[in-house]
Amino acid sequence: MLETEIAFSNLKYIINLSKKMLSYVFKKILKKNYEDLIYLINFTSKNIEKKLNNINNIIKKKYITINYNEIINILKKEKYFKKNNIK
């Protein structure tokens, strides 16, 4: 979750801004810290292409927005609360 505070705005604008911020941050990471990222991926895993594709997918991805009630229904359907002993 990314918490963004903007005065005199609405939730839809804040959600869209948050999506843009995430994309911007990952673009900057790839641009400015590419070598460091490759080093970290090599250190933790050998599948560099897949990891870089995952990052690029985050940048290009069209995010969906769901409300609180929808996510609770999804979690109930998946029996998340019972699996994790949440009441």
Strand content: under 5%
Q: Span between N and C termini?
A: 22 Å
Question: Strand tally, please?
Answer: 0
Biggest sheet layout:
none
Question: Which secondary-structure class do the elements indicate?
Answer: mainly alpha
Shape designation: flat
H-E string: HHHHH
Low-confidence stretches: none
Helix content: 55-70%
User: How many helical elements?
Assistant: 5
Mean pLDDT across all residues, rounded?
81
Computed over alpha carbons, the radius of gyration is 17 Å
Structure notes:
The protein is mostly helical. It is built from five helices and no strands. The longest helix has 22 residues, at 11-32. The protein is flat, with a radius of gyration of 17 Å. The mean pLDDT is 81.
Task: Supply database-style keywords.
mainly alpha, 0% strand, 87 residues
Task: Please provide a brief summary of the model.
This protein is mainly alpha-helical and 87 residues long. Helices cover 69% and strands 0% of the residues.
Task: List the topology elements.
Layout: H1 11-32, H2 34-44, H3 48-60, H4 68-77, H5 80-83
